[in-house]
Amino acid sequence: MKSVKERIGEMIRILRKKYPGSHTALKFETPLQILVSTILSAQCTDKRVNQVTPSLFQKYQTSADFAAASQAELEEVIRSTGFYRNKAKNIIGASKKITEDFGGRIPDNMEDLLTLPGVARKTANIILSSAFKKAEGIAVDTHVKRLSQRLGLSKEKDPDRIERDLMRIVPREDWIEFNYLFVNYGREICQARKPNCPECELKHLCPSAKEFFTDNELNP
For 74-117, how does the pLDDT look when each residue is reduced to its tens digit (9 = 90+)? Predict the structure, then answer.
């Protein structure tokens, strides 16, 4: 099998052709909105988040609005996204810090974003890439984690360590798009319970394909 750097380049070329113009599925118009949406997306589908956010963003339009929100009222609006108490607490806490320490503007760098409640590297990477078109890392969500392990790009289980492995092999100019490409492929083909290896366009680059299907099934 080819070296990991050779394989990663081919993977990106294949997926970019399959998913041209890939971007986050979360709907947003401002950096604040993508921050809130990303916090809500933890253990929740993007589709569900997008159903909740129109009324949420109509009610709360600035960081000061969120900072002054009643936790009970915010919880009720976001309840269907799950873990709503902790999410509401983080949204309010992050909004207070944004309002008080950053003049109501979402920070556009990793260091400051990581000071916000509810914001770890994955969330910060999504905010930076989606709102500011900045690549300071690679967002490692459940799809990127799963595909990175199956495709032999990382043996790590911790998202931060997986990110470090990916940053070493993925060209920096591809960091922003990489997450979106893997998310799309993880949802459509390389799903958690049963990957569709026979239809996988990356199977010739994947060391795990034979764990799920025989040679005859992979190449009928």
Answer: 999 999 999 999 999 999 999 999 999 999 999 999 999 999 99
- Which contacts of 113-121 are long-range, i.e. CB under 8 A and separated by 24 or more positions? 116/35, 117/89, 117/90, 117/93, 118/39, 118/86, 118/87, 118/89, 118/90, 118/91, 118/93, 118/94, 119/35, 119/39, 119/90, 119/94, 121/159, 121/160, 121/163
**101, 108, 112, 141: the active-site residue:** 141
Which residue, 132, 166, 191, sits at the end of a domain? 132
Band of pLDDT at residue 214, cut at 50, 70 and 90: low
Find the CATH number of the domain harbouring 51: 1.10.340.30
Q: Which of 97, 122, 145, 203 is catalytic?
A: 122
186 lies in the same domain as 162:
yes
* 18 flagged as catalytic: no
26 assigned to some structural domain? no
Domain extent, residue 47, equals: 31-132
pLDDT confidence bin for 220, thresholds 50/70/90: low
Whether 112 and 184 map to the same domain: the answer is: no
Active site residue 46: no
